[in-house]
Amino acid sequence: MSQKDVLLYEKTGKIGRVIINRPKARNAFNQELVENLGEFIKLADQDPDTNVIVISAVGDKAFSAGFDIKESIGEPIVDVIPRRENTAMELNTWREVWKCKKPVIASVQGFCIGGGLHLAFMCDLIIASEDARFGEPEVAFSYVPDILIEPWKLPMNKARQLLYLGEYLTAEELRECGVVNKVVPFEKLEEETMKIAGRLAEMPSDTMMMLKYQVNKTYEIQGMVNAMDFAAEIFSLCRINQAQTQKEFNEIVNSQGLKAALDWKNNHNS
């Protein structure tokens, strides 16, 4: 696939739309998508004709199923310097959302997992369909998040529940936690997202940029950026350790798929 295939950029009035376009893979993040996502977000932020950004995904099954595990396990980066460089690239991609001068809305349907959850959580607002499910299942295959946004968005024990147990939370549960701003039927998701984006687009743009900077700085003063840098270092160590200690699991992923590997792991541990 070319860059234009896995990501799209469209404009609707004063709204710039970054669209993830791997529906057959449930919009999983392969290396090409991650490497180019930051550039698409910057394109939307620098577009002089737009005042607000919407990040969405094609299809009805998933906003994103997270990182393409088969790709990352099949081609692991385990040398220290390249591993840290790759992790920094991923971290910087998510931070492009945070650094946007314009407000960013995530429009989420279906599964929103791992990297997909990180992308959505970095946005200023989240509009989700009733069928949306948010999860961090990485612990099941011996990974940790590369950007630890959850403690900044969720109450402490809810963040631990999501991370430790690999459970999925519904859009309504996250709305009750104050993370998801609005839950709507799937068939209304685009309409409601664009309605809210339209309201933001008509706000005084310079004032909105200064307001976002003001809010972001409040969290940065509390240590958010440093905490993410530390999380990225632990992620790099975990990736190296996983490749070295989970060889049989990784071989099953490559030959039979992730589900078969998880079934093997559950039977092996029982």
From TrEMBL:
Molecular functions per Gene Ontology: catalytic activity
InterPro entries: ClpP/crotonase-like_dom_sf (IPR029045), Enoyl-CoA_hydra/iso (IPR001753)
Superkingdom of this protein's organism: Bacteria
Pfam families (UniProt xref): ECH_1
SUPFAM superfamilies membership: ClpP/crotonase
UniProt similarity note: Belongs to the enoyl-CoA hydratase/isomerase family.
Protein name per UniProt: Enoyl-CoA hydratase
Higher taxonomy: Bacteria, Bacillati, Bacillota, Clostridia, Lachnospirales
